[in-house]
TrEMBL record:
Residues 297-453 form the Uracil-DNA glycosylase-like domain. SUPFAM superfamilies: Uracil-DNA glycosylase-like. Keywords: 4Fe-4S, DNA damage, DNA repair, Hydrolase, Iron, Iron-sulfur, Metal-binding. Belongs to the uracil-DNA glycosylase (UDG) superfamily. Type 4 (UDGa) family. PANTHER family: TYPE-4 URACIL-DNA GLYCOSYLASE, TYPE-5 URACIL-DNA GLYCOSYLASE. The lineage of its organism: Bacteria, Pseudomonadati, Planctomycetota, Planctomycetia, Pirellulales. InterPro entries: DNA_repair_put, DUF4130, UDG_Type-4/5, Ura-DNA_glyco_family4, Uracil-DNA_glycosylase-like, Uracil-DNA_glycosylase-like_sf. This is Type-4 uracil-DNA glycosylase. It comes from Aporhodopirellula aestuarii.
């Protein structure tokens, strides 16, 4: 007989799923609904024991993916999750590794959609000050595609820790009182305060960071969907800024600002790792190609779970044409050996592909790439990450961390912290092996090496 189970949250699904599993009820015999749906006429809602509970073990990765997929708005998500759970516990323990399986593929598609929605919420929510409030209070209105408020709210609580704020969406809302996040029902837009004192501040800020050299209207519409524009204070000035852009670009080029040149035009039309590796030697997007022996592209399997990103090739790498073959590479290999990670299991690359150096007699001394060179070279790294889509991204040192995590990143403050970035859900920064080698104090050097090994172990954890 078909059983009908009403579910709203991940926690409810988890409880019901354990009970259904404990009672041996197959996925084909159960229909999950949300509260909006009505039970079918002959639905059996009572016959599953309230106490039967399965003690099952499933991969941690399934629980992580289930929590994310539970936030998807698709009405079939609960059934998909239960079917996957059933299969994992009925002779298919390695199911999640079968990426071609229909259920696994659908799970990953839903996870990707939810993750992207969370990213957009973090990017597009703009708070407005409520003038009438006794305490300084801010509100924001947002229209996500999925039920993602609980996934995104901790980010806002960290970022705006010392503010009282509320975020309203049509589906649910959240309030932060500088101590606790409280979740509630959704609110229609008409009930949200439209105090605009924060808007003018935000407009000023937006105009000051707006770089006309990077304007791509189609991309702006894709990244900042037009339906979000009405809630963004800066939207009202975008057209003015766009109208101004050509003149401002010309001015910037004349002043030699704006990083107008990037490697994009040197990328092959349909880039994969092989075509990228051969195209990079033709790149002339910055001056570094004039002095280096050759470009040093990334190396490793295209399905690598871990991608390590360093700063730039060194003297030995420049000659060999391979990343991390010098002393820093030897230290990296020592760390890999401690963790029993094969060098051929990971993909290793750099932010900048040509060696930058200062000539001192016969020696070529490493010189840090500047912002213009990092910006120019970025399309190569972006194409590598897009081709591989790693499970974990490891930034070796401050340069890749600032390029991929954020300009304010400080390795001494945030080394070893796993965080989500637009490139990878698990992004972590650690010491650059060369920084460990340069440390003069032996005890500190050994300590940094152990921290480095610990961070790589964290990156390697599933
Ligand atoms: Fe091109 Fe990067 Fe080499 Fe500059 S460093 S020439 S951007 S590949």
């Amino acid at each position: 007989m078909e059983r009908f189970v009403s579910i709203e949250t991940y926690e409810q699904w988890r409880t019901e799923a354990r009970r259904l599993l404990g009672a041996g009820i197959a996925p084909s015999d159960v229909h999950f609904s949300t509260l909006d749906e009505q039970p079918t006429l002959f639905a059996d809602t009572e016959s599953v024991s309230k106490t039967a509970r399965a003690n099952v073990t499933v991969p941690k990765s399934f629980l992580e993916i289930a929590q994310t997929v539970a936030c998807h708005q698709s009405p079939v998500r609960w059934e998909l999750l239960y079917r996957t759970l059933w299969r994992l516990t009925h002779n298919e323990p390695a199911l999640l590794q079968m990426v071609t399986d229909d259920d696994v593929h659908e799970l990953h598609q839903m996870k990707k959609a939810v993750t992207r929605d969370v990213h957009k919420m973090k990017a597009f929510v703009r708070f407005r000050r409520v003038a009438s409030a006794l305490e300084e209070t801010y509100v924001a209105w947002h229209r996500p595609d999925h039920r993602i408020v609980s996934l995104a709210a901790p980010f806002f609580a960290r970022r705006f820790k010392a503010m009282n704020w509320s975020i309203f969406t049509p589906i649910e809302s959240v309030v932060w009182d500088q101590q606790t996040l409280r979740y509630g029902a959704g609110v229609p837009a008409s009930e949200v305060s439209d105090e605009d004192s924060l808007e003018s501040l935000w407009k000023t800020y937006y105009a000051s960071i707006f770089n006309p050299a990077r304007v791509k209207v189609a991309m702006m519409k894709r990244e900042m969907p037009v339906r979000h524009w009405q809630t963004l204070p800066e939207a009202s000035i975008i057209q003015d800024l766009l109208d101004d852009a050509p003149q401002r670009v010309a001015d910037m080029i004349e002043r030699n600002e704006g990083f107008a040149d990037t490697a994009t035009k040197f990328l092959p039309p349909q880039p994969d790792l092989d075509s990228l590796a051969s195209a990079v030697n033709c790149c002339e997007a910055c001056d570094l190609h004039q002095f280096a022996t050759q470009a040093v592209f990334g190396e490793g399997p295209r399905d690598a779970k871990i991608v390590l990103v360093g700063e730039q090739p060194g003297d030995r790498e420049d000659i060999a044409g391979k990343p991390f073959v010098g002393p820093a590479g030897e230290l990296l290999d020592r760390a890999f050996a401690e963790l029993e990670i094969g060098r051929d299991e990971v993909y290793i690359t750099n932010v900048v592909k040509h060696f930058k150096f200062t000539q001192r007699g016969k020696r070529r001394l490493h010189k840090k790439p500047n912002s213009r060179e990092i910006y120019a070279c970025r399309p190569w790294l972006e194409a590598e990450l897009a081709a591989i889509q790693p499970h974990t991204l490891v930034c070796l040192g401050a340069t890749p961390a600032q390029a991929l995590i954020g300009r304010d990143f400080r390795i001494t403050a945030s080394r070893g912290v796993v965080q989500a970035t637009e490139w990878c859900q698990r992004t972590i920064a650690t010491w650059h092996p060369a920084a460990i080698l340069r440390m003069p104090d032996a005890a500190r050097k050994e300590q940094m090496f152990q921290e480095f090994v610990g961070d790589l172990a964290k990156a390697n954890a599933q």
